[in-house]
Structure prediction request, 474 residues.
Amino acid sequence: MKYRLMVLAAAIALVAAACGGGADATTTTVADAGGGDTTATDAPSGDPIEIDFWVAFSDEKRLGFAQDRAAEFNAAHPEYNVKVTSFASYNDVFDAAVLAVDSGQPPALIHFFEAATRQALDAVDSSGNKIFKSVTEAIGGRTEILGEPVVLDNVVSAARDYYTVDGSFYSMPWNTSSTVLLSNMDILNAAGVTKPPETWGEVTAACEKVMAMTDGPSGCISWPNHSWFAEQSLGQQGELLANNDNGRSGRATEVFLNSKGMIDYVTWWKDLADKGYYTYTGQQRDWGGVDSAYLAGELAMMIDSSSDTVIHTDEATDLGFELKASFMPRNENVPYVGNLIGGATIWMLDGMDTKKEDGALAFMNFFSNPKNAAAWHQLTGYVPITEDAVALLNAEGWYDEAPNAKVASDQLAAAANTPASLGALIGNFVGIRDILTLAIEDILVNDVDVATRLGQANEEANKSLSEYEALFGN
Prediction:
């Protein structure tokens, strides 16, 4: 079983790395993955119960938010001490937690991303026991814990539906995002385009006008070469990424990287690149490179994570141009089904005594109460995670002042509740994402045939999935 756990840790290599940043006195910087918390039973009488919370953010805004909430919770509940520990990425958090479980000193809570949900559910310790506990099970139907109202039943539908597995929330949603189109309306208007394009055909037509400008930008549109965008397009087109209803009616045992919807999307992407409309930075998953090109006025549009909508809107205002957010462009030749979520949740380690577990649960619910969930959204652009947070933002007039910030929520709300639009639960999803991302780069850079290259990627991905299922499927 220990071998299985280590293989699982090795299988998870994060695609979307978190930003680097500093820490303050409330943050523990982990140098040794074996370090952990002090359990309630080991704590000297009168000392607060330590609750270690390991997060995959290190930038000042997002890490600082977690630190501030921990400090507020500690002040309200002096019998507990939530300590926030910063890691460079989600996979670093998970790998450290795996080692800490094996050493007997695990954290109470860790921050882990959506594509690895299946891997987290499969994770076991050296005795074969699952290392994470269902949050729904731990709450046990309570409406408040240590005076903190339980918010789990109030989570917005897109996150609720994605993270509900076998009728249970195994983790608490935190940072939730989707894909949005961000348009430089100054450039589009100068090119004679009066509104952001909504479909693939409209993107192509807009780019034709932009690139015909005598004093226009060097490119028209870009987005990072990351398989998440292809997954979003499959959801829009109502196509599955994996069998068994995207791994939701049973374990996914086959993926479809060469489906019609995938071929159509990558073909459109390649056509934009061949015409000089799409700018490839030359680096996979280059979020920063695309952002920089857009903000420098080298692009009229970019498709980006909604998590940066608020930040980019402020940056555009400082730079003196109008930024308008809108839905991710879709394939006009098929009915729209829905976009998916991205982001991460908070997982609770199993094995804590009741008093410590209740402290961890109380903090998780405090962390996403309406006030905190609304503040997190306003700080970052991540979707407000509860309906009460949305209501609070509406009541305060936030969306009247910041209409761009509402686009991702509207897009997710417009999705049908189908396996295609919910997104997939797949073993070794991160490795499969890498396979698709590499294939798309090959198509963009080396001008290889789309269907042929995606067929090769599909064979490789299914081999990887089969190997994973042989280890964890039972």
DSSP finds 21 helices and 15 strands in the chain. The two ends are 12 Å apart (CA to CA). Residues 1-44 have pLDDT under 50 and may be disordered.
